[in-house]
Every structure is written in C-alpha cells, then in structure tokens.
Design brief:
Chain A is α+β, with helices and mostly antiparallel strands. Chain A has two domains: 96 residues, Aspartate carbamoyltransferase regulatory subunit, N-terminal domain (Alpha-Beta Plaits, 2-Layer Sandwich); 50 residues, SH3 type barrels. Chain A is built from three helices and nine strands. In chain A, the strands form two sheets. Chain A has a five-stranded antiparallel sheet, covered by helices on one side. Chain A has a four-stranded antiparallel sheet with strand order 6-7-8-9, covered by helices on one side. By secondary structure, chain B is of the alpha/beta class. Chain B has two domains: 137 residues, Aspartate/ornithine carbamoyltransferase (Rossmann fold, 3-Layer(aba) Sandwich); 154 residues, 3-Layer(aba) Sandwich (Rossmann fold). Classes of the chains: A alpha+beta, B alpha/beta. At the A-B interface, loops of A face helix 3 and helix 4 of B.
C-alpha cells in the first residue's frame, strides 16, 4: 500500500487493522466487531473499495484501542475468509496473520434449522463442525443441518 | 463389538459389524420377546423413558423390551405432565433422569435433542426419534424384518416408496441399506424425492440406486416394498395431497404383478397407503415388523446396559 493511499485511511497508534476484506464486506465486519458499542476512545476508520494488489479491490477496517476476541476473529473468518488481522502497537505492526477457521465454531452463528434443539432456549451454545473449507460449509453438531450463509445467522 | 455404555444417536454410530451382531442377538431374543422363555439380564436396572412427543409403538415396545429383560421403567409419557411445562430445560430434565436411571430412551420433537441429551447425561442415551432427525432403532428393526424374511440382506432389491423427502425413517434406512449393498429403488412423487444431499452421500458409499416414479414398474421385480406415509401437512393444497396420496396406494391390484415372495413393510401408523386387503396376503410384513421392535430393542438395551453402570 502506498503512503498516499495509507493517508486516506488514518494510521492508528494502537489497535487492530482488519485488511484484505472482500470488497463490500466491511459493513458486515463492523457489525461483527460491534462498531457502535465500542468505547469512547476507539476511532474506527473504514475503507471501502480500496485498490489492492492481491484482490483487485478490497475493504479495510481499522479500530483504535481494541484487540479482537477469538470469537470475533472466527466470525470474520466466516464472512471474510481472505481477511488478515494486524495488531498495532505504537504505530508498528506487532503481529499480522490471516484469519483462520478452527475445526469447531462455538457461539458465532445460530443454526438455520428453526426446529434445532440449539434454537429452543436450552442453556447451550450453538456449535458447528467445519465440514468444508473452500467455500466454507458448517454442520450443526446437534441437528446435522449444513449451512453456508453466515451473515443472516450471526449470533 | 462392545456397545456397553455407549449412546445410540444415529444409525451412523454403528459399524456394519455392530449392526449384524445386534441383528443376530435380536434373533435370539425372539422367544423371550414372545414370553415363551424368561431371562433377567437387566434385573435391578432402571431405564427412563423420556417421551416428549406422542408415540405408541416406539414407547410400548421399548417398555416391553425392558420388562422382558427383567428391568424396570420410569416413564415420562407426556411432556405436558412433566416439569418441562413449567419451563424446565431439556438439559436439566435429562440431568435429573440421568441420576435416577441406568439409561435414557429419548423421543423429542426437536432435531438434535438426543445429541444434547448425550452431553448432559452420565448414562447412555438411546435416541427414539428427534423431530425430523434420527430414529436408529427403527432402522435396526426394519433390517431385522428383511433379514428374517430372506435370511440375508445382501442381494435384495428394496423399493422405498412414498414420502422420501421428509420421512426420517426412510433416510436412516437408505443409509443402512447402502451399507449392506442392497439395491435401492426410489419411487416417489417429484416433490417428495430423497434430498440431494443424502443421494450424494449414498452414491459416495457406492450404493446401487435408481429412480422409478412408476410404482407399478418399481414393484414388479422387488423383494421388499417399503411404504412410508405421505403427510397432508407437506402440501399447500388439499387437492394436490389427495392426488399424490391416492396415486401411492398399495392394494391387491398393484401386488398382482409382484414376486410371490415380495414383502410389504410400513413403519406404521398407516393412513390409507396400504389397503387393509393387503393384510390378508402373504406379502404383509408390517405387523411382524412392529413386533420385531421388541426383540431388537431388547438386544440393543442388553448390549448397552451389560456390565457396570455408566458411560463408556
């Protein structure tokens, strides 16, 4: 990324950069990180339709003073599998990694089967096995229903 | 094989060898199931029947199986009469039952209930039907009926007829038949075809499978005709339902072209799919099928509850 383009999306001192988000998916990423519920010191910068060497066009989200929980990373991995996550400390990239789906996804999406026991108010969390990775397909461990549309079912 | 202390949630939990061993054990249980001989391997054992959905055959045959094995039952036969009506979760109910009994047989209207119960319980769970999900002991008794009629499962040609889309018994059965190399003929109206996902899975296992929507042709050289109920609620329009249901009715006329040894099966209750006149023919196997539920469930409970209490 050139210095010129970097300036369009303000650099952050401390926080998280979610880069290489598929074009148009930044809004969904904002929903996952609960951008509206962040604390007062967290500025969120969003770039939509930014030129990218790898993807052609991409989205990018920078959040100040926040590091993502494993669950949020899993949710991002489901809807934006090409994303990378960088932890920034004092303007420097401390750690950069692609989002990676574990074999089991707990509490991130709800089962699309309305009759599944996991949707009946039982004291349990939704749970899925990753049964395919490209494209991602999840299978409910309770009712065995498969799903590949995650946006509509974010927990 | 040891099923001791194991849950049975889906027919997929069993290997082919385990299924064959259960069927062999069920055959030996027949005189005991008929009350001609007596055995008490489950003396002092308690099996909880958690039936949170109406059921006649399944609950009574599980209860009969426990009694014939000399064990005792405690039963929730009606969800409305249990604390679940007061808002108790299934997880809590199962935990409680798990502390009262040595195994739990569960029937529940929601898919995945048995899997949840297996996590909550310290004793084995036997799934006796979870919504549109699994019902493995039904599959075992279906296989037992075919094996009894023909002495073997391999080489049979089985027609699955009627509602192949929503019927839970037929999905588990199709999987098990594929496991045994049975030739499967699917005969259903287009809107009630076997789900593509399941057909793909069966094809991957190398199942011999074909479609024959014309019931008459399908029946002609079949060994087994497995009829399922076509449910009215699956159709938006009553007229459409009547048309489809009427075209999948088995009567003496249809069976006139069949092999002499053809066996007609039905998980029951039937709602007009098999005409009462078929009861009087040598083809009718559905009442025998319902009886075999007892020795099959005896074999299953005996295998799961043999030895010390607890879960494997």
């Amino acid at each position: 990324m050139t210095a010129m383009r970097e300036l369009r999306i303000a650099a952050i001192k401390n926080g998280t950069v979610i880069d290489h988000i598929g074009n148009g998916l930044a809004i969904d990423v904002l929903r996952i990180i609960n951008a509206r519920g962040l604390d007062r010191d967290s500025t969120v910068s969003v770039g939509i339709h930014v030129r990218s060497g790898k993807l052609g066009w991409k989205d990018i989200v920078k959040v100040e003073n926040m590091e993502l929980s494993a669950r949020k990373v899993n949710a991002i991995a489901l809807i934006a599998p090409t994303a990378t996550i960088s932890i920034i400390r004092d303007f420097k990239v401390q750690e950069k990694r692609p989002v990676d789906l574990p074999d089991t996804i707990v509490g991130v999406v709800t089962c699309p089967n309305p009759s599944c026991i996991s949707n009946q108010g039982e004291p349990i969390e939704s749970e899925f096995r990753v049964t395919r990775r490209r494209p991602v397909v999840l299978t409910c461990v309770f009712c065995e229903r498969t799903m590949d549309d995650f946006l509509a079912h974010l927990a | 094989m040891s099923l001791r202390g194991r849950d049975l949630i889906s027919i997929r939990d069993l290997t082919k060898e385990e299924i064959l061993a259960l069927l062999a054990s069920a055959r030996k249980m027949i005189p005991y199931a008929e009350g001609k001989r007596v055995m008490h391997p489950l003396a002092d054992r308690i099996v909880a029947m958690g039936f949170f959905e109406p059921s006649t055959r399944t609950r009574l045959s599980f209860e009969a199986a426990v009694h014939r094995l000399g064990g005792n039952c405690i039963t929730i036969a009606d969800a409305a009469a249990s604390s679940m009506r007061k808002g108790e979760s299934l997880s809590d109910t199962i935990r409680m039952l798990s502390s009262y009994a040595d195994a739990i047989v569960l029937r529940h209207p929601n898919e995945g209930a048995a899997q949840l119960a297996a996590r909550a319980a310290d004793v084995p769970i036997v799934n006796a039907g979870d919504g549109a999900g699994q019902h493995p002991s039904q599959t075992l008794l279906d296989l037992a009926t075919m094996q009894e009629a023909f002495g073997t499962l391999s080489g049979l040609k089985v027609v699955l007829l009627g509602d192949l889309r929503y019927g839970r018994t037929v999905h588990s059965l199709a999987y098990a038949l594929a496991l045994f190399g049975v030739e499967i003929v699917l005969s259903s109206p287009p809107e009630l075809r076997l789900p593509q996902e399941l057909r793909d899975e069966l094809e991957r296992t190398g199942a011999k499978m074909s479609l024959e929507p014309d019931m008459r042709k399908a029946v002609r050289d079949a060994d087994v005709l497995y009829v399922t109920r076509i449910q009215k609620e699956r159709f938006g329009d009553e007229g459409e339902y009547r048309k489809v249901a009427g075209s999948y009715r088995i009567d003496a006329h249809i069976l006139a072209d069949a092999k002499q040894r053809l066996v007609v099966m039905h998980p029951l209750p039937r709602a007009g799919e098999v005409a009462p006149e078929v009861d009087r023919t040598s083809h009718a196997a559905y009442f025998r099928q319902a009886f075999l539920g007892v020795p099959v469930r005896m074999a299953l409970l005996d295998a799961i509850l043999a030895g010390p209490k607890g879960k494997e």
